[in-house]
Amino acid sequence: MNGRNALTWEEKFRLDVWYVDHHSLGLDLLILAKTLGQVLSRRGISAEGEATMPAFTGSRVEDR
Predict the structure, then answer these.
(1) Which residues touch 59 (CB under 8 Å, ≥6 apart)?
(2) How many C-alpha atoms does 21 have within 13 Å on its Cβ side?
(3) Residues 8-13: what's their mean pLDDT?
(4) 6 pLDDT band (50/70/90 cuts)?
(5) CA torsion sign, 53 to 57 to 62 to 64?
(6) Which of 57 and 47 is assigned the larger pLDDT?
(7) In a domain, 34, yes or no
(8) Within a domain: residue 47?
(9) Total domain count for the chain?
(10) What's the mean pLDDT when you consider all of the chain?
(11) Within 10 A of 14 (CB to CB), how many other CB atoms are there?
(12) Higher pLDDT, 37 or 5
């Protein structure tokens, strides 16, 4: 819901990892509310220059 298809794959994966580390019922309810707002506002549907999102072709490995 944060940026939808306007985010890069790396940004999406980073947010997924953050969610796994911080999941809770309260966070899930917040995500549902924000998702409804995003759907109704129609923001972030398409990545720049794409109909929706570029195809995932892998990601670079970063040192952690």
Answers:
(1) 9, 10, 13
(2) 6
(3) 85
(4) confident
(5) positive
(6) 57
(7) yes
(8) no
(9) 1
(10) 78
(11) 12
(12) 37
